[in-house]
UniProtKB/TrEMBL annotation, chains A, B:
Entry-linked Pfam families: GFO_IDH_MocA (PF01408)
PANTHER family per record: BCDNA.GH03377 (PTHR43818), DEHYDROGENASE (PTHR43818:SF7)
Superkingdom of source: Bacteria
UniProt name for this protein: D-galactose 1-dehydrogenase
Entries under InterPro entries matching the protein: Gfo/Idh/MocA-like_OxRdtase_N (IPR000683), Gfo/Idh/MocA_oxidrdct_glycsds (IPR050463), NAD(P)-bd_dom_sf (IPR036291)
Gene Ontology MF term list: nucleotide binding
Signal peptide interval: none
Native source species: Tranquillimonas alkanivorans
Start and end residues of each Gfo/Idh/MocA-like oxidoreductase N-terminal domain: 6-115
């Protein structure tokens, strides 16, 4: 086996503790060599108050993984690339498409790896759904992504601030799967975005897509779902139906073996990052983010009741 | 001189009569061979009620120019490319970025020319401003685009409908110049969009951009400007100041000869289209539209007083 890769993890919040740190600790191919956090790090790992200090003090760490909200991420990614480090970005890869294009160009010029991750694409059932759809003619596809924002983003004010994406923060996970499993690209034809009267980002959205073969493709995202949570993609084709549920983890289809298994999204993201770094290449697919930007551009805004935690 | 190119012009509205038709009539390199319009065409030119009829009846016409609003444009462009025609798109090239990517891919696969035009880039002073800025270090740049919507878009309801872009319809002209003249790309860092309470698109916008060299780059778009109209880009550098005014037509700078002249934007767009068709290549730069999509995604929404004609 190759020498383990050293990574500094920036932003020690919920997603870092729930996903990044367990994935890194379980993988002999990776060493969590430092953290960057103003609110405390991880036992036994050197913590820095800010990224410039870490970049200065630890030239031995070749990879920087950014688990911070999209708005501050650009400056950090640009600084890390500028210091010759490989960079892995939590989804979405930035607050704007233009900054993602700029980072891609910077990484290419610097000869380092940039990996814009889409963790939901690594869910168990996604590859099976893609294979199944590739052999069939799509008639109808419906994305239903309904969850309780209070449960999954408790007190996270940045999601309600302009640029925080609101319900598109989980919704972009659905779009990352959709753009992965569909054989032909779709584009948004209509969108309605529901904004709470006291918030700058939407709490719900309905999207219709135009499909080159004329299939009906639509999505509904809602952050007001209490009780059971729903992260489903259902498709009807000329040869049966399929359902990808649990955020991509479970695949069921007529005439195909079921696929499911325990969560392995972040372990697979880090495995992919190790491959990219060793191969000296980058992976930046902005298609899910293009659909989000298109929804904000094309979408009709509806004001709905105020949201308070 | 090469054989003139035959073009069908689709959408005989204000922009067609003010710009496309005079440009085509004055250019011996082009023949306006047909129009497509439900509300009447041009004396002496065959008119069709819809595009499919024209594509069927006139296989001799190799080029289709689309001067219709962005929302219906995709289906028309896809049909024209599907019928093996070269396509020229009014700005903006589509209602969504995803559909522009899809058209580019379709045109490439079909081996036809796709030209996403940005008429303001063809204004007299733009090339001089680009050259002047290329040799200097930018300190501050300010875009001021203030016009009277009642004067320039009288009764055009589509500009207020979701997807119609509102004040970004003229604002994207400013962004097309900005992205052309700046030596290094910028990305949006903050935006405030003012929506009239009774409309789905903004009537004004303030944009701040991050510049790789730390220059202050900002833009203000406003559709409520009565009296004198303003379409200016002013820049301060380490070696003097410049002003590009009248929508790019007039260039003035310290230490440089002034540049100005009569409007020649659409004649130059058709000249460029002829070059592209004969060279068998396409030109689709989505950078101005990326900034618009980023502004809708990142922008804070402010509700302002209702707008009525």
């Amino acid at each position: 086996m190759a020498e383990p890769l050293s990574v500094a993890l920036v932003g020690i919040g919920k997603i870092a503790r729930d996903q990044h740190i367990p994935a890194l600790n379980a993988d002999p191919d990776w060493t969590l060599a430092a953290t960057v956090s103003r609110s405390g790090g991880v036992d036994g790992v050197e913590n820095f108050a800010d990224l410039p200090q870490m970049l200065e003090a630890r030239p031995d760490i070749g990879v920087v993984s950014l688990a911070v909200p999209p708005v501050p991420r650009f400056a950090m990614a640009a600084a890390a690339i500028g210091a010759g480090r490989h960079v892995m970005l939590e989804k979405p890869p930035g607050a704007t498409l233009a900054e993602c294009h700029a980072l891609s160009a910077q990484a290419q010029a610097a000869g380092v790896t940039l990996h814009a991750t889409w963790h939901s694409r690594m869910a168990h059932g996604v590859a099976a759904a893609k294979e199944w759809l590739a052999e069939r003619e799509l008639k109808r596809l419906r994305v239903t992504w309904k969850e309780d924002v209070r449960r999954w983003h408790p007190g996270q004010e940045w999601i309600w601030q302009a640029g925080g994406l609101g319900v598109f923060d989980p919704g972009i996970n659905a779009l990352s799967i959709l753009t992965e499993i569909l054989p032909a690209p779709v584009h948004l034809s209509r969108a309605v975005l529901d904004f709470p009267g006291n918030r700058d980002t939407p709490i719900a959205a309905e999207l219709d897509f135009a499909h080159p073969g004329g299939a009906e493709v639509s999505a509904v995202f809602d952050w007001r779902q209490e009780g059971p949570q729903t992260w489903d993609i259902e498709a009807e084709t000329d040869a049966g139906t399929m359902r990808l549920s649990d955020g991509g983890a479970t695949f069921r289809a007529e005439g195909a073996a079921p696929v499911e298994g325990p969560d392995r999204e972040y372990p697979r993201l880090y495995a992919r990052m190790a491959e990219l770094v060793r191969a000296g290449t980058s992976e930046v697919d902005l298609a899910p983010m293009v659909h989000v930007a298109d929804a904000f551009t094309l979408g009709r805004r509806r004001v709905v009741e105020p949201f308070d935690w």
